[in-house]
């Protein structure tokens, strides 16, 4: 790759630019569909697409990149010319993505992140040839990593540790993922956006129809709907984590995953702020966990709950060997956690049961036929509150703290002292009376934002002990 010659993206980039323009103007298109009659709407839509295509072509033509004097130099902009110079010494990671369209033309999308990257990547090349992407990555990182079809291949003689998810574990990941809830939330959002197009009499008919049904039929119908969402969740998880592979090369971790959209993530070890073990309610009884890391800087990836999954699923007993192989500084070891005091239990129960009780009273008043749902919800809230209390705890070592917290999932976090950015201790009036306190540990997260972990209703003496540990006080 010549250092002086400027390069352009692949012409398929025009299509990606047009898709982005349409996606950003979707609400304008819907507004025009509602406001104008069919003839004027089609006319305006044609003008919109024509202008969008023209701007996409100009954006592609005006976008150039080159390597020169140890910098990646990018020039872009249709009406206002912009230049961005990124020193190769500042580059933290280079992520490669290959969607369906990319793979049709043997292309990749290359995203470059630096320590100062915010909610988006420092630079993004949305369509480059696979061979050019390999050359560019080699030039920027000074390391050769072969990845045909955006998959990492390690030479046979390499001793770099690597693990790949098996088909059986991949299926188990989908079955126990709990993605059905996310799909249901997305369906509810889509329904709320389309609600204005649904006739009002449809709601009245649906309400009367449901009210007249037998409770057994309603439960059966709900089970069928949940089963469908569960199958969709399994399919989505398999597509997301298919061919998941993690490889450690020198001081970086390389993660490749995805069936339809293949991604390769690069994680420098020095950017890892914490390691976590997540046990969902579904997986915990079977002894399966997910291992993830919190990475400082970089762009946000909401599909992974703002964290980076190191391995989607493994047995709890397999975590220590896995960390010993990839992150030896975070090996769990035989840590005995200090549990929360018994008098903290009522705080957890009140916190989870009160919202359900207040909402339940309203449901009983307006819809008495669904009172049984309120009783069931209160039981679930009580059980959740007790589990949050029972699973809470911490363990302190000279240079590391281990904390365990629970929401719907139990999380065990391993944080080194030097990675903790702030420590906060709070005492509310009711906590003061019970000699309890809440502590909050903060680290850097993705997008440069903070990531916080709260352990509530600790013994006040234990909270003071953690404060002294953080401040290096005897």
From TrEMBL:
Transmembrane segments: 12-34, 40-63, 170-194, 214-239, 348-366, 372-389
Entry keyword Disulfide bond: no
Keywords: Membrane, Transmembrane, Transmembrane helix
InterPro entries for this protein: UCP026631, YdbS-like_PH
Segment forming the signal sequence: none
Domain of life of the organism encoding this protein: Bacteria
Keyword match Membrane: yes
Domain YdbS-like PH: 60-139, 250-319, 393-470
A Pfam family of this chain: bPH_2
Name by which UniProt lists this protein: Membrane protein
Annotated organism of origin: Oceanobacillus polygoni
Upper classification of the organism: Bacteria, Bacillati, Bacillota, Bacilli, Bacillales
């Amino acid at each position: 790759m010549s250092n002086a010659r400027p390069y352009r993206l692949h012409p398929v980039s025009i299509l990606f630019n047009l898709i982005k323009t349409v996606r950003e103007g979707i609400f304008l298109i819907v507004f025009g569909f509602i406001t104008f009659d069919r003839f004027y709407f089609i006319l305006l839509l044609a003008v919109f697409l024509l202008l969008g295509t023209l701007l996409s072509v100009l954006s592609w033509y005006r976008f150039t990149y080159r390597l020169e004097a140890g910098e990646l130099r990018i020039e872009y902009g249709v009406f206002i010319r912009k230049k961005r110079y990124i020193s190769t010494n500042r580059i933290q990671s280079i992520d490669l993505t290959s969607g369906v369209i990319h793979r049709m033309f043997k292309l990749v999308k290359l995203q470059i992140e630096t320590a100062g990257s915010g909610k988006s990547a420092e630079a993004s090349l949305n369509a480059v040839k696979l061979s050019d992407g390999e050359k560019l990555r080699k030039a920027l990182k000074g390391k050769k990593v072969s990845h045909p079809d955006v998959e990492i291949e390690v030479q046979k003689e390499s001793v770099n540790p690597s693990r790949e998810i098996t088909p059986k574990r991949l299926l188990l990941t989908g079955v126990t993922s709990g993605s059905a809830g996310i799909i249901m939330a997305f369906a509810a959002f889509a329904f709320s956006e389309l609600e204005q197009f649904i006739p009002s009499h449809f709601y009245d008919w649906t309400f009367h129809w449901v009210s007249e049904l037998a409770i057994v039929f309603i439960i059966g119908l709900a089970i069928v709907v949940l089963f469908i969402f569960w199958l969709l969740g399994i399919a989505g998880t398999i597509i997301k984590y298919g061919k998941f592979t993690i490889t450690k090369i020198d001081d970086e971790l390389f993660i490749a995953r995805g069936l339809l959209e293949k991604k390769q993530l690069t994680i420098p070890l020095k950017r890892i702020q914490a390691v976590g073990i997540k046990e969902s309610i579904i997986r915990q009884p079977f002894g399966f966990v997910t291992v993830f890391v919190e990475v400082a800087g970089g762009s946000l990836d909401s599909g992974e709950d703002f964290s980076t999954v190191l391995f989607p699923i493994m047995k709890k007993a397999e975590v220590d060997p896995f960390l010993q192989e990839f992150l030896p500084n975070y090996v769990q070891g035989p840590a005995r956690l200090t549990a929360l005091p018994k008098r903290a239990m009522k705080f957890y129960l009140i916190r989870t049961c009160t919202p359900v009780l207040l909402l339940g009273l309203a449901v009983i008043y307006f819809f008495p036929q669904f009172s049984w749902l309120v009783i069931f919800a209160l039981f679930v809230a009580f059980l959740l509150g007790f589990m949050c209390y029972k699973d809470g705890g911490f363990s302190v070592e000279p240079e590391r703290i281990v904390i365990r917290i629970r929401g719907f999932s139990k999380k065990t976090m391993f944080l080194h002292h030097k990675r903790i950015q702030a420590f906060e201790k709070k005492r509310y009036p009711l906590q003061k009376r019970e000699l309890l306190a809440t502590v909050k540990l903060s680290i850097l997260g993705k997008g440069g934002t903070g990531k916080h972990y709260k352990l509530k209703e600790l013994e006040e003496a234990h909270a003071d002990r953690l404060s002294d540990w953080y401040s290096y006080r005897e």
